[in-house]
Specification:
The radius of gyration is 19 Å and the shape is globular. It has eleven helices and 13 strands. It folds into two domains: 216 residues, Rossmann fold (3-Layer(aba) Sandwich), CATH 3.40.50; 74 residues, UDP-galactose 4-epimerase, domain 1, CATH 3.90.25.10. The structure holds nicotinamide-adenine-dinucleotide (NAD). Nicotinamide-adenine-dinucleotide (NAD) binds next to α1, α4 and β5.
């Protein structure tokens, strides 16, 4: 990263952003958070609120009057702010598309004025419906049709990737794209359909854990501190600039096995209940059977390997999750 005064984290009051902010402060960095607290919360930053190296701007990026000054004095920008979560995307498709396209454009435009490196948080959703065993960064992407709102999240994030790489090519902006696979840990909220916090809250409340579909679909869950480690390493690596990286773990678990593991690890008496996708997400909802990353590129460039087991993640996350299940 170029010399400068502070690091900017958009979406820094969110789940991943707040862990990243804690990490950067612990590294001795000065940090500026820009977050409108639409899905995030200042509560997430409670452990570091008194830290004099942290400044928080509670505003939409596009409405932040000080944005130019903040970025002029920045040595790096982690752009995590986005409309996130399948349920949110289904309920508020206009807001999802507008937020994910417009706010990223504003950040890239302003960052390019000062040539501040930008790490863009993208998503494994961009791989779409591809049936591959594991996804590599150069794979073709297979996105569903526009009458199914769920694909608007993937498409908007994909356009962010195109735009970031276009700024890199045309304006020489240093950009790094991190395609995050499922990230989990304390402070993740179940309100927007995230599976692990939903399961943990239900298990703690003695309610049924609701598994959608047959539960044989698999996912790979990476602990948030591991994800943050990968993001920091990518940002600090000039060889990563101008490129796309998968970030996550390649340890697979089925959603049914996950439900069982949560019940067992937390010593819960809850049962598992199967619901059809149609009941939960409406007609025509498409879910992927697998979503597993190939991590060779990330490992080659950053030497990063996630280290936290799923059982350990549940143990750490279980007692600390406090969000309501909706
Ligand atoms: N959690 C995951 O498993 C996962 C997986 C793939 C990608 N991602 C990506 O990682 C990033 C962070 O996700 P998260 O899970 O921490 O979600 P989150 O909802 O907790 O964080 C997003 C943050 O952005 C803020 N925000 C939204 N719109 C904003 C705007 N216009 N201006 C300023 N702030 C705004 C929200 O208030 C929130 O704090 C997102 O870009 C998301 O797409 C996350």
């Amino acid at each position: 990263m170029a010399e400068g005064k502070h690091i900017v984290v958009t979406g820094g009051a969110g789940f991943i952003g707040s862990h990243l902010v804690e990490r950067l402060l612990a590294d001795g960095e000065k940090v500026v958070v820009i977050d409108d607290c639409s899905t995030g919360s200042l509560e997430n930053l409670a452990p570091v609120r008194e830290n004099t190296s942290l400044r928080i701007f509670q505003t939409k990026i596009s409405a932040c009057g000080e944005l130019g000054t903040i970025l002029e004095e920045a040595k790096g920008i982690y752009h995590l702010a986005a409309a996130v979560g399948v349920e949110l995307v289904l309920k508020q498709p206009i807001q999802t598309i507008q937020t994910n396209l417009h706010e990223t454009e504003v950040i890239l435009e302003e960052a390019s004025r000062w040539r501040v490196p930008v790490l863009l948080a993208s998503t494994s959703e961009v791989y779409g419906k591809s049936q591959k065993e594991a996804f590599s960064e150069d794979d073709d992407l297979l996105i569903g049709p526009p009458h199914l709102s769920r694909w608007s999240y993937a498409c908007s994030k994909l356009m962010d990737e195109f735009l970031a790489l276009a700024f890199a090519k045309e304006r020489g902006l240093p950009v790094i794209i991190a395609r995050l696979f499922n990230t989990v840990g304390p402070r993740q909220t179940g309100r927007y359909g995230m599976v692990l916090p939903r399961f943990i809250e239900a298990a703690k409340a003695g309610k049924a854990l609701q598994v959608y579909g047959d539960g044989q679909q698999t996912r790979c869950f990476c602990y948030v501190d591991d994800t943050v480690e990968a993001l920091v390493r990518l940002m600090n690596c000039t060889a990563a600039q101008g490129q796309v990286f998968n970030v996550g773990t390649d340890e697979e678990v089925s959603i049914r096995e996950l439900a069982k593991l949560v019940i067992q690890t937390l010593g819960s008496t809850s049962e598992i209940e199967n619901l059809s996708y149609e009941e939960v997400c409406g007609k025509g909802f498409e879910d992927m059977r697998k979503r597993k990353p190939v991590l060779a590129k990330l490992q080659r460039v950053t030497c990063f390997t996630p280290t936290t087991s799923l059982e350990r993640i549940i143990q750490i996350t279980g007692p600390k999750t406090s969000s309501p299940v909706t």
